[in-house]
Design goal:
single chain, alpha+beta, two-stranded antiparallel sheet, globular
């Protein structure tokens, strides 16, 4: 269980690190100032009690739907374990792949992953 908590923190850290890649220097400066005044993603997840996991359910075996319409796959299992390790509810957010990064940037969900 400790292993999943460490993996969760590393994945969230990587998502946050890559979120700012490719921005102009001025936009980066504005983001740094904004980051100082707002909660971290991890704090927001814990405060809301939900880990919103973004994915597109068409990439077998990572994300897919079963006969009952439930989401299954490697990424789904990892997202559920991360939420469990954090003590929050796992919330699936099925999103078209071409909009997954913009949706992450506009806070439609907290994480995306590929294991």
């Amino acid at each position: 269980m400790k292993k999943y908590a460490v993996i969760s923190i590393l994945i969230i850290g990587l998502v946050l690190m890559f979120a700012g890649c490719g921005q102009s220097e001025q936009a980066e400066e504005v983001n740094v100032r904004m980051e100082l005044t707002k909660q971290s993603t991890l704090d927001k997840i814990v405060a809301s009690g939900e880990l919103r996991h973004g994915f597109e359910a068409g990439y077998m075996p990572f994300e897919m739907t079963d006969k009952n319409g439930d989401f299954i796959g490697f990424d789904i299992d990892m997202g559920k374990k991360m939420a469990e390790a954090m003590g929050v509810k796992w919330v699936p957010v099925n999103t078209a792949w071409d909009g997954i990064i913009p949706s992450l940037m506009t806070d439609k969900f907290d994480i995306i992953m590929r294991v």
